[in-house]
Amino acid sequence: MSLRTKSASFIVLVLLSVTAIAVSAVAHWRQSPIEARPKVVVELVGVASRGDAEVSLDKAGEVKTGETLRWTINSYNESDAAAKGYKVIGEIPPGTVFVAGSAAAERTALVTYSIDGGKTYSARPTIEEKQPDGSIKVVPAPIVLYTQIKYEWSDPLDPASRVAAFYAVQVK
């Protein structure tokens, strides 16, 4: 597969990830006949770090091995109802690896990671590793196994407010 084909495939996967993130944004509410539902709009913004410059992914063209892609997930509550238990999930696209220590969020958020395609999340994912003596030891999962990052805010996303989450990946 040529680098151009790999890059095109990666860009398609990034677009799929954008869709997955938008679908993964969740807001909970108690529904009553007079209580409005929250309407949260999610926007994913990506930039490629190239030397000292950052280039928007929609203008970056091909991404190259070793480049760092920085993602911002912006969430806007466009309704008159608070989004309680709000969370978003950022995808780590195939062909990339999560950059350790890059996960951050506006306001205090619980950040957890998945290594199983989003089935389970943990602040410190672990795997079982077979030891030379045949025993099994639970060890921290290598960062290359991370597939998603989940951000959960305990405070509601109030009407007409916004919150952002950030993370970076490196192209393999």
Quick summary of this structure?
This protein is an alpha+beta fold. It contains 2 helices and 12 strands; from the N terminus they run H-E-E-E-H-E-E-E-E-E-E-E-E-E.
Mean pLDDT: 85
- Described by its quaternary structure, the protein is single chain
Distance separating the two termini: 14 Å
Shape: flat
| Beta-strand segment tally | 12
* Level-2 CATH architecture: Sandwich
CATH-defined fold name: Immunoglobulin-like
What is the count of distinct domains? 1
CATH class: Mainly Beta
* Proportion of residues in β-strands: 35-45%
Radius of gyration: 18 Å
What is the helix tally? 2
Provide the succession of SSEs.
Answer: HEEEHEEEEEEEEE
Which regions have little confidence, pLDDT < 50, spanning 5+ residues? 1-24, 26-30
Walk me through this protein's architecture.
With about 170 residues, this protein is an alpha+beta fold. It has one domain: Sandwich (Immunoglobulin-like). The chain is built from 2 helices and 12 strands. Strands 2, 3, 4, 6, 7 and 12 form a 6-stranded antiparallel sheet that branches. It has a 4-stranded antiparallel sheet with strand order 1-5-11-8. A two-stranded antiparallel sheet has the order 9-10. β9 (about 125-130) and β10 (about 135-140) form a beta hairpin. The radius of gyration is 18 Å and the shape is flat. The two termini are about 15 Å apart.
